[in-house]
Structure formats: C-alpha cells, structure tokens
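Students often ask why inverse folding is considered easier than folding. One informal answer: many sequences map to the same fold, so there is more than one right answer. In these notes we will look at a single instance of the problem. The structure comes first.
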C-alpha cells in the first residue's frame, strides 16, 4: 500500500483528499501542522508527502527543508500561492513537484503517481544508457544524440541541460537549478541564457520547435522533459 502523508489545514480539502485517496487504496495520514509533519515524515516513512505551503504553525518551505535533512521522500506541494517565485523556492528547497489550487483530483492523482514512480525508478547507476523517444535517441554513456539515423551535434552546454532534463523525466526542473548546475552560482539570474539554449535544443530535437513535445516550458518556473 502506498502511504500518503497529507499536510494541510483546510479541513474540507483534507476530507476530500482522504476519501479520494482511500478509495484508490492509498494509506492516508493527515496533519494540519508543520511540526507534526516533519516528525511523521521520519517516523511513519510515507511514500509521498502532499504539503500545503500555508500552514498555521510553520511556513511550508521550512517543512520541506526540515524533512530534507533526513528524508528523500517525494514531496508534492499543494500551493494556493500563484507567484512562481514561491513555487521556485519550494522546488529549490527540495520539493519534487507542485499542484496549484484549486486542482482537479485527477490531476493530483496523476502527479502523485508520477512522484511515487520516480522514487521507485532504478538508481542512477542502473538507469538505461539509452533514452528513446519517437523522434530522437539519447545515449547517456556515449553522450550522443541521434535523430532520423543522423547524429545531432550538441554543444557541451546544450548536452548538460539535456542530460539534466532527460534523466528526470516528467519532473519540473527549476530555472534556478538548471542555471546553478550548468553555469554556476553567479549566473542564477541569467534566465535569458536558458531561453536561448532551450530554443537551440528544440531546433535540434523537436519536430515542431515552436510547439515542443519533449522539452516543455513551465512559464516563469522551469522546464520539464516529457518522454
Ligand atoms: Ca493552508
């Protein structure tokens, strides 16, 4: 049974989540407090945490930081905050994904399953060396990309960005993280670099670069590889 820890102070939403999750055979534990949440995340070993950012006793971002000191459990943020800055802070603190309120239960369940699946995915050393899509193939060991039987030439920076995205399929990678990993801490404001390089990657890999199917932009937040 997949155990879900729901951290949310909106009693009505908690009730709806419990009904929907239990109906799909998830194990559900709930708390309205950040302090209790950080304790339960360690003691009960949930498979995934659903976390509201606006809690009465504690900022949800601090809950993420606390949990991350001891646990790599997937954290899915339920955010009523519409600024992308808040969401980026949550992702950079170690959240895995976010769902903006109000959300549909179907969307939430899909994100939840994706978060759990990623956790169950094999460790990096066992990852397949080849990632294939309908349009191109990426060989992670040889660091080569092929498209329609031709090698696609990527610059080292393009490769670095692509590698981060494709080894985290379906996962939103924040602009801050990409800039930090690829260019280093002094470039964290240079989101225009990312736009330029993503456009180049799309031109090289996407059948229709203006309507990308694989390299998806989450406006103001980051990028996602959909395999
Ligand atoms: Ca709240």
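Output (designed amino acids):
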């Amino acid at each position: 049974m997949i155990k879900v820890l729901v951290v949310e102070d909106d009693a009505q939403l908690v009730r709806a989540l419990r009904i929907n999750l239990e109906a799909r055979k998830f194990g559900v534990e709930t708390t309205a407090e950040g302090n209790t949440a950080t304790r339960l995340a360690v003691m009960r070993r949930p498979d995934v945490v659903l976390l509201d950012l606006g809690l009465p006793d504690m900022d949800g971002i601090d809950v993420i930081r606390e949990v991350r000191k001891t646990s790599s459990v997937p954290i899915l943020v339920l955010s009523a905050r519409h600024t992308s800055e808040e969401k980026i802070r949550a992702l950079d603190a170690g959240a895995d994904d976010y769902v903006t309120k109000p959300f549909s239960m179907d969307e939430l369940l899909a994100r939840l399953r994706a978060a759990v699946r990623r956790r169950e995915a094999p460790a990096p050393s066992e990852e397949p060396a080849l990632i294939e899509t309908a349009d191109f193939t990426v060989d992670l060991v040889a660091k080569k990309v092929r498209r329609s039987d031709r090698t696609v030439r990527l610059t080292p920076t393009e490769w670095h960005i692509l590698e981060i995205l494709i080894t985290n399929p379906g996962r939103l990678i924040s602009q801050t993280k990409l800039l930090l990993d690829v260019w280093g801490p002094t470039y964290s404001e240079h989101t225009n670099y990312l736009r330029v390089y993503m456009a180049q990657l799309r031109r090289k890999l996407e059948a229709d670069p203006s309507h990308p199917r694989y390299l998806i932009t989450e406006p103001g937040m980051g990028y996602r590889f959909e395999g």
